[in-house]
Design a protein that fits this description.
A hairpin with a 3-residue loop joins β8 (125-129) and β9 (133-139). The relative contact order is 0.12. Strands 4, 8, 9, 17 and 18 form a five-stranded antiparallel sheet that branches. Strands 11-10-14-15 form a four-stranded antiparallel sheet, covered by helices on one side. The protein has helices spanning 3-25, 39-42, 47-50, 65-69, 74-77, 99-118, 145-152, 200-209, 254-267, 294-317, 320-341, 349-378, 383-415, 418-449, 456-459; strands at 28-29, 35-36, 44-45, 52-59, 62-64, 78-81, 84-87, 125-129, 133-139, 158-162, 171-172, 179-186, 192-198, 221-226, 229-235, 244-251, 278-280, 284-286, 346-347. The longest helix is centred in the last third of the chain and has 33 residues, at 383-415. α7 runs parallel beside α9, α10 packs parallel to α12 and α11 packs antiparallel against α14 (418-449). The protein is of the alpha+beta class.
Length: 473
């Protein structure tokens, strides 16, 4: 590669890397409504590192100890059950909790659990507390927690209605007769929206509900309910005859829209609805379960190790240090982009081990290639021949080790569930990126930077061995 072409490529590479570094770490406002969050800021932290919010769901007829103590004559209407109090109506003549209450609670718990699973939280917890209350803990996100917990406990089936008669003019849709599916879409400056694909019956229903709507009918709306909980409303200024209903402007974040979508997609079927209503306790925010500054400490530790590796490579290999610097920065940026845009990737303390091991793999095999260049050059080969042969000889072992580890990581990802599956995926990505760097990018960056050196042999910190041979008499 010539000097001029090298300068052009170095400039373009530098601009791209600097731009990605900026977007990775610097948030900034876009307009009055929304802002750009940095890639790192958008990465999902597990509750161990990022904390979260929790609440307790109490079914109708069940109260907490604090609420019990605040009620007059509570002992006449409630009975103690572990740490909660259950209304007398839910006990049979034998003093046992009725089967109907048990079955209703089991169904409600199953559906609420499924709704949270649809949110793609890799790291959340939901379990029974005192048999008949539900404790939910979710990681910290931009979504409003109050609305989240309210929607997730909505009981009943889907109802379409209009503003003229919200109490009677609706249709149950538990057999999917009106809605095919729901999905999230980006609505630009207004945030995010929900797109509902209607069946033929759904299209006719929307057409009927919007009949008579005009530009002046400011109170004409379509409502979508699950039971008595309003999911959203749409103001209409004309009769709608469409198979797709799009609702935008109601959701500031993607998570908020995803909550509505997950509820709609599940509630389309009778088996994913329940009839038990719930109240929630006061929501509690909790810090990272492993300590408030654990994530920062782990990040600084990885940064210190990376800087030490860069310094070592510069000292030992001189100009090849620039190659390693460009490669490790590219590797880090690629990892950041993956953790930002792959929703199932959640960063936990174990994730840092996967990242460290992937980076160590990259460093060791880069060092092996650099050492091979020295060995080939000592044999009297030209510089370019030494580089070519060194990378080719290193490639076999590099590919074998990375391939074996990638298969292992893939098996872990396929077999595991939840958080371990997320770690397996991150390990797969890290190994794949390490292979890409050591097998291709190192050579590219070396040929990119080397033309700018006045003495290319010294740039690679190379020297030929001088062997003295004494003639025998």
């Amino acid at each position: 590669m010539g000097k001029k072409k090298s300068i052009v490529f170095i400039t373009l590479t530098t601009i791209i890397l600097v731009a990605l570094l900026f977007f990775s770490f610097v948030p900034f406002p876009i307009n009055a409504v929304s802002k750009f969050n940095s890639f790192v800021g958008s990465s999902q932290l597990g509750m161990e590192l990022g904390g979260g919010v929790e609440t307790v769901y109490y079914p109708k007829g069940v109260i907490s100890k604090a609420e019990y103590q605040g009620l007059a004559d509570a002992s006449k209407n409630y009975r103690a059950h572990k740490g909660i109090y259950i209304q007398n109506d839910n006990f049979d003549t034998q003093g046992q909790i009725t089967d109907s209450f048990k079955n209703s609670f089991e169904q409600a718990f199953r559906v609420i659990q499924k709704r949270f699973e649809q949110k793609l939280y890799t790291n959340f917890s939901i379990f029974r507390q005192d048999d008949y209350s539900i404790l939910v803990r979710v990681p910290k996100t931009e979504e409003g927690s109050s609305a989240l917990f309210k929607y997730m406990s909505a009981d009943g089936g889907i109802k379409f209605t209009n503003a003229e008669n919200t109490s009677q003019n609706y249709i149950n849709n538990n057999d999917s007769s009106l809605i095919k599916s729901a999905s999230v879409f980006n609505a630009g400056d207004t945030g995010y929206g929900v797109r509902i694909n209607l069946t033929g019956a759904g299209r006719e229903r929307v057409k009927k509900l919007t009949e008579g709507a005009t530009q002046n009918s400011t109170d004409k709306k379509i409502y979508l309910y699950v039971g008595t909980t309003e999911l959203f409303s749409v103001q209409v200024t004309q009769q709608l005859d469409t198979s797709t209903l799009q609702v935008s402007g109601n959701f500031r974040t993607k998570e908020e829209a995803n909550t509505i979508v997950s509820i709609i997609n599940l509630a389309r079927r009778q088996e994913n609805t329940f009839s038990m209503s719930f109240t929630t306790s006061t929501m509690q925010r909790f810090d990272a379960t492993m300590g408030k500054y654990t994530a920062l400490i782990l990040l600084l530790t990885l940064s210190a190790i990376t800087i030490a590796a860069i310094v070592y490579i510069f000292i030992r290999y001189k100009g090849l240090g620039f190659v390693y610097l460009l490669s490790i920065v590219t590797f880090i940026l690629a990892l950041i982009l993956c953790t930002t845009f792959i929703p199932t990737l959640v960063i936990t303390p174990t994730s840092f081990i996967a990242i460290f091991f992937s980076g160590l793999l990259l460093t060791l095999f880069s060092k092996m290639s650099f050492d091979r260049i020295k060995e080939e050059f000592k044999k009297g080969k030209t510089l370019h021949k030494s580089i070519h042969d060194a990378f080719n000889k290193s490639a076999i072992l590099t590919a074998e080790v990375h391939g074996a580890l990638f298969v292992f990581a893939t098996l872990c990802y396929a077999i595991a569930t939840g958080m371990m599956q997320s770690i397996g995926l991150l390990f797969m990505i890290g190994i794949g990126l390490s292979a890409a760097v050591t097998l291709g990018l190192n050579r590219f960056y070396l040929y990119l930077t080397m033309p700018q050196a006045k003495n290319k042999i010294e740039y690679c910190n190379l020297r030929k061995e001088v062997i003295d041979i004494d003639d025998e008499d």
